[in-house]
Amino acid sequence: MSRIQKIGLSVMMAGLHLAMAAPAETPLASQSLNQLEQRLAEIDAELVQLAHYSLRSGIGAIGYRSQSHKTPEQPEWIEIELEKEIPINEIMLVPTIRRDSEDGFQADGFPAVFRITVGTGSDRTGRLLGEYRSADGILPRIAPFVVSAGGSMASWIRIEATRLSARAFDHNYVFQLSEVLVFSAGENVALRRPVNVSSIYPERGDSSWNKRFLTDGHTPYLMDAAQGLQSVAYVSPHGLKPIMDIDLGGEYTLSRIHLHAVDQSDTVPQAFAGELGIPRHLRIEGASLPDFSDKKTLLENRLESVNDTGPIMMWRFPETTCRYVRLSDASTSTAFRIGFAEIELFSNGRNVALGKTVGSDLPATFINPTRSLAAITDGRNLFGHILPVRNWLLQLARRHDLEAERPLVADELNRRYARQNANLHRMSWLAALLAAGIGFTILIDRYLHIRKTTRIKERFAADLHDELGANLHTIGMLGDLAREAVDSREDLLELLDRSRVFTERSGAAARYCTNMLEAKGLCEDLVEEMTRSAARLLADLDYDLSFDGEDTLKNLKPRKRIDLFFFYKECLTNIIRHSGATQVIAKLTGNGNRIQLTITDNGHGLTGDVPASLKRRARLLGAQVSTEKSESGGTRICLTLRARRGLRLSQRSKVRKPDVPDI
């Protein structure tokens, strides 16, 4: 294995152990979008480095199956006796696997609830390592289930299923496993150890179900690493059974051998049966001398049936020190071929045969260059690199965890992206509405500005007309009087003085109208202003001016007070100019929700509708105006203005002809 591979494997195993030991991860919903994207990238990057699920086909041993039950609450158990008391690191449960027509490959008969206990010696109570449930995410699966033992001392392990799951073909409840591996410092100490079980499926001699298959080292997987170039297995010519020698280059204490079977075929269906190349009677010998004069038998294995074969055949044997290892077929069959994808010889957990020279007793002319002897120790099979069994199964378990996590992360990301798209869509509509709102606001603002400008012009014209009109009318009357008093110097001078006063007042009135547009400091006391104007304009007439609800009047906005005052003043000016009246009665009333101004004269009355100047003033004020004939034959003008609610009425006050200095 390359140095990069070893580093990658170390990182993967550290991640696996951390995942098994760490508490539950942060819920996906609470992670940010960047965290989810980073996690998905990490999963994809790690999956590329992990071994793939490649499942066996053909015939062979399956594993252990208990008796079947009609209900799931039927306890079943398995016990494995280890060779001695030893610290164990991991326990791996390999499920039996079935092919589902809809869901693909799935575990079959893997317990829904189970617990694992370890113990030493005759103490059969032991110590509970953990209890596991399908609700915790252990199902569905096709990968090994890895339990960390944390270096617990044990001479036996017990797997007890307390709730069974249904097998596929008849939905009866059974306890099934393909293989159980127990690792101590990288060594499977459960390999070919005795197994005790609670019940046994009825077995035939050629049955693929047997409790001994739980520890025979045969898994339902083909070793399919993520890295490495393909290597085609060595197979001898037809009818020849060569003797193969491996020179380890130095003496090693050997204790285990792994034989990787010839790949049946890379075609579908496969071209050969599952026992191609495996000797009927395998003999393995070790020696320190190249002529094997000091040979020692390491292993004798007779192939009874196809159930004794598998993709990787593993045996342990007593520790033996040797440099040379010989493999041969001791059977009498002559129509057989020998071949292997790889031969691994282990000393202290390390494959010391990797890259070593392999020889044969066959002449060189019988060597097939596409299936050379060098392929036996090149560390590769048909898929790529050959991994240590423990690392390989850990990678499959890790792949299961990541492939279970990935769709959850991807689904959460898709939800986030969909939410983002929806928010973006909404934001686009909001932006469009906002743009439309801004445009509409600009139009409304422009309209209001134009309207305000128009009203200012209209108000300015009205103010000048009403304020200056009365003064100019007075100046005209004084001019007429001055013409009549031309013979009386004193009267003429007095009239001229009065004309000068009104001329100055007209100039001040222009400035006054400008200030009125800003409503600053004007008509702060409406009653006082109306009283003063009445005294000035109606000095030669009999008039009566009264007020009711002065508190309401004081609570009017300044602009309303000014407009109300100008309406009142315009009424008085029109009476003086056009009515010929000798008597005027004005009454201003304010209550909680209404203000009403009534002005009555005894003139000769109106000859039409409400005068345009009064209509304009009423419109600026936001009030209603009407006229009617009074009892004396003159005109009654009535103005009604809605005011703010909740204003109290003040005491009734009445002003009649106050003393005003003569102008």
Description:
By secondary structure, this protein is an alpha+beta fold. Among the domains are: 158 residues, Jelly Rolls, CATH 2.60.120; 158 residues, Galactose-binding domain-like (Jelly Rolls, Sandwich), CATH 2.60.120; 141 residues, 2-Layer Sandwich (Heat Shock Protein 90), CATH 3.30.565. 32% of the residues lie in helices and 28% in strands. It has 8 helices and 28 strands. The strands form 7 sheets. Strands 2, 5, 6, 7, 11, 12 and 13 form a 7-stranded antiparallel β-sheet that branches. A hairpin with a 2-residue loop joins strand 20 and strand 21. The radius of gyration is 56 Å and the shape is rod-shaped. It starts with a helix and ends in an 8-residue tail after the last strand.
Indicate the percent of residues in helices: 25-40%
Radius of gyration: 56 Å
Global morphology:
rod-shaped
CATH architecture classification name of the domain at 64-221: Sandwich
Low-confidence region ranges: 1-7, 14-24, 645-663
For the biggest sheet, the summary is:
7 strands, antiparallel
Label the structural class. alpha+beta
* Measured distance between first and last alpha carbons: 122 Å
CATH topology of the domain at 64-221: Jelly Rolls
Indicate the proportion of strand residues: 25-35%
The averaged pLDDT comes out at 85
| Count of runs of 4 or more consecutive helical residues | 8
How many E strands? 28
CATH homologous superfamily label of the domain at 64-221: Galactose-binding domain-like
CATH class of the domain at 64-221: Mainly Beta
